[in-house]
Design goal:
heterodimer, A: five-stranded antiparallel β-sheet, three-stranded parallel β-sheet, 13 helices, B: alpha+beta, five-stranded mixed β-sheet, globular
Chain lengths: 328, 219
């Protein structure tokens, strides 16, 4: 690690002020940032420790939704009774990620800002990575790209977003609350992460110095029928090749509403409201699930080594919806 | 001499430490003789004071911000029971318990833990009075080289507390159902997945955890 200064933020506004310093990074659980700093991928000049800010609560909101503090640890959110009973999709997604030790460290805010696990980004021995060194090219486009994006990629970057939590948050139509110098704002999950375009160095739409203070989940948590399916190279403790957050509001044998998003396939959690709309008002048959899957995967363009992901994703979507349907 | 005799451990460690110091000397001299221009080190932040409460005892120390909790334990405090495996949060050898939660000490800065209550393997059982999980690891042959064992033990001890509390895992059939989850082998495997064992003692590690979970009424 290159040398950096360390400051513990006294409160949220103090953090926002410190976060505007050149080379400043917010430090939550450290599970990704310290790893990146050790590899020289990130060379912070100042770490602003926000992990002890009083933003770790999980509470019910007036409208019946759930508000999660940005510093709540992944393990605590996954095991919180409100989340387990009302938003089980989020519990399942969180538990599918990382290891128990890492989930005890990782914060919700940090997980939203998790960087890609593309090896060309992570290994500074590779010269070409537009995300790490803008304008240097993309090593993955013509390189080892089995784990890379099939949707929404650009010639500049085919990296995927690695988080499981974010896939569930996208499906559940959560929103991210942030604070900056100019006050507070709320960003819907759909707008929080970006597609790479020609600026893959930017993962999110956050402005400089903005601090994530929490995540809001709407009242409808799809508690009755929810399944997070993660397909990976080993049974545990691995990033997704493809993951699916699928949930159904199923009443009277008809789908009233559906939540559907994919992980491991794009630069951000992949959700298309049209795919969910295709399910609404229909009977939950395998054929209907297949239609939604095809719509969600429309325009998929695999790289040289990950063509399998298109078939895998389609089957995983159908299976996740079938599993959700079968729940009592 | 039994393997958990303090004298045996102290001798072996003392030997390794002095051997390391001897081996280091000529290397440094050789480097100087090569007359390579030594790049000026970038300025590092000054050490800051912090207190760690480790195994029930307060330790005051001064560390530079880059020092991880793992390095502070091993290098500053001489608590070498906690192991450095990958140093990148992938193997679990550095697992310690902080404020009742197991974490990877390699991905955490020491500065982040000022005032925290830390349990390392040195604080779990003592020679002659082993923790039930340590005894089970020996009885079930749950290690070969032993390098991952301190992390496995810390992880397993925390796992039992999590299960008592009713925490669920990725293989728990229905997260909506509250209450204790039976700790079958699938649950134990999933909950121990953050600790790698290159010797492949996994089958016996799972058995050791299962036996203690049953003994203590967790399973």
């Amino acid at each position: 690690m290159t040398p950096f200064a360390y400051r513990r933020a006294q409160d949220v506004d103090d953090a926002v002020r410190l976060g505007l310093a050149p080379g400043a990074h917010f430090l939550g659980g450290g599970t990704n940032l310290i790893d990146l700093a050790k590899g020289g991928v990130v060379q912070p000049l100042l770490l602003v420790d926000v992990s002890r800010l009083p933003l770790a609560d999980v509470v019910e909101t007036a409208d019946g939704g759930v508000r999660i503090g940005a510093m709540a640890r992944n393990a605590d959110v996954a095991n919180h009774p409100l989340v387990r009973t009302r938003h089980p999709l989020l519990s399942q997604a969180l538990l599918a990620g990382a290891s128990p030790q890492l989930r005890n460290m990782a914060t919700v805010g940090g997980n939203l800002l998790q960087r890609t696990r593309c090896p060309y980004f992570y290994d500074t021995g590779f010269e070409h990575c537009n995300k790490r060194a803008p304008g240097s090219g993309c090593g993955a486009v013509d390189g080892i790209n089995r784990n890379h994006a099939i949707l929404g990629a650009s010639p500049a970057c085919i990296a995927t977003h690695p988080s499981d939590m974010c896939v569930a948050l996208a499906a559940l139509r959560a929103s991210v609350r942030v604070r900056g110098l100019r006050g507070d704002r709320v960003i819907p999950m759909a707008d929080f992460h970006r597609l790479p375009g020609d600026a893959p160095q930017r993962d999110t739409t956050l402005a400089a110095g903005e601090l994530i203070v929490g995540v809001d989940l709407p009242p409808d948590g799809f508690a009755g029928h929810a399944h997070y399916l993660k397909v990976r190279d080993r049974a545990s403790y691995a990033f997704a090749l493809v993951s699916v957050a699928a949930a159904l509001d199923l009443r009277g044998g008809v789908i009233q509403d559906a939540a559907l998003a994919l992980g491991g396939v794009a630069h951000k959690p992949w959700r298309r409201p049209e795919a969910e709309a295709r399910l609404a008002g229909r009977e939950p048959t395998d054929a209907v699930f297949g239609e939604a899957a095809d719509l969600l995967l429309l325009g998929a363009r695999p790289a040289s080594q990950n063509g399998f992901k298109v078939t895998l994703a389609r089957r995983a979507i159908v299976r996740a919806l079938q599993t959700a349907r079968a729940q009592a | 001499m039994s393997i958990d005799s303090p004298a045996a451990r102290a001798t072996r460690r003392g030997f390794l430490q002095s051997a390391g110091a001897l081996a280091g000397t000529p290397l440094i001299a050789g480097h100087a003789q090569a007359a390579q221009p030594v790049p000026e080190a970038p300025p590092s932040a000054p050490p800051a004071a912090l207190t760690l409460r480790i195994n029930g005892q307060d330790h005051a120390l001064h560390v530079e911000p880059r020092v991880t909790l793992l390095d502070a334990l091993r290098d500053n405090l001489g608590l070498t029971g906690t192991k450095k495996g990958c140093d990148r949060g992938q193997c679990g050898a550095c697992t310690v318990i902080v404020n009742g939660r197991r974490i990877n000490a390699c991905l955490s800065l020491a500065m982040q833990h000022d005032g925290d209550e830390i349990t390392t393997v040195e604080g779990i059982g003592q020679p002659g009075r082993l923790h039930p999980l340590q005894a089970a690891f020996i009885a079930e042959d749950a290690f070969q080289c032993g390098y991952c064992t301190p992390g496995q033990i810390c992880s397993g001890v925390a796992l039992l507390d999590e299960a008592r509390r009713g925490d669920c895992s990725a293989v728990t059939p229905d997260v909506r159902r509250q209450g204790a989850t039976p700790l079958g082998d699938d649950e134990i495997r999933e909950r121990m997945s953050g600790n790698l064992c290159r010797c492949g003692a996994y089958a016996n590690i799972v058995r050791a955890v299962r036996i203690v979970a049953r003994q203590e009424g967790v399973a």
